[in-house]
Amino acid sequence: MIYSVSGKLIHKEGNLAVIECGGVGYACRTTQTTLSKLGKLGEQAFLFTHLAVREDAMELFGFADRDELACFELLITVSGVGPKAALAILSDLTPNRFALLVASGDSSALTKVKGIGKKSAERIVVDLKDKLAKSNPAIKEMPASAGAVGTDELSEALAALLVLGYRQEEVLPILAGLPEDAGAEELIRLTLREMGKRK
């Protein structure tokens, strides 16, 4: 098992980064998120890796952080979701946003990812909801009643909305669609506004 690669970034394109370590170039399939975090060609780079071994090929997948790697490894445990689909999902969604969508049961949001159909999205939510809530250390958890949610800001917003009497299944889909960099107060305000429109 190759745990990580560290060396000079010598090539990147599409969903591929090549890192030279000790004179050997390691081609790592990766996400757009990780590619955006890598520096310029010739600079030092580090990736956590997952080695996929099949009968006809061996592929190395690289990620900028452990959260993204953990999500990738969870996704490929779902029947019908291969590495290519997992990379597509994680190119569109951060691990925290993905966890929020799964926790809220919002499979329709996953169908917006290229190559993910309705059945695959539903299977991902059903298969991973409990795993994300209970066993994935890379995803921060709320109290048991609130399920798995990403950032502290999201967690704080969800907790406040639950105190106000809203149900988790009402507010999680809304929170999942809000800007990830918004503060807790802004998330609460936007969620309440959206809830008002639905009455």
Report on the structure:
- The protein has 199 residues and is of the alpha+beta class.
- It folds into 2 domains: 4-64, OB fold (Dihydrolipoamide Acetyltransferase, E2P) (Beta Barrel), CATH 2.40.50; 67-198, Orthogonal Bundle (DNA polymerase, domain 1).
- The protein is built from 9 helices and 5 strands; from the N terminus they run βββαββαααααααα.
- A 5-stranded mixed barrel has the order 1-2-3-5-4.
- A hairpin with a 2-residue loop joins β1 and β2.
- The radius of gyration is 18 Å and the shape is elongated.
Portion in strands? 15-25%
> What is the helix content?
40-55%
Radius of gyration: 18 Å
Query: How many structural domains are formed by the residues?
Result: 2
Tally of contiguous helical segments: 9
The CATH topology of the largest domain comes to DNA polymerase, domain 1
Assigned CATH architecture of the largest domain: Orthogonal Bundle
**Mean pLDDT over all positions:** 84
Q: What is the terminal separation in angstroms? A: 53 Å
| Shape field | elongated
Q: Spell the H/E element sequence.
A: EEEHEEHHHHHHHH
DSSP strand tally: 5
CATH superfamily of the largest domain: 5' to 3' exonuclease, C-terminal subdomain
Strand order of the largest sheet: 1-2-3-5-4
What's the CATH class label of the largest domain? Mainly Alpha
**Structural class by sheet pairing and helices:** alpha+beta
Uncertain ranges: 135-150
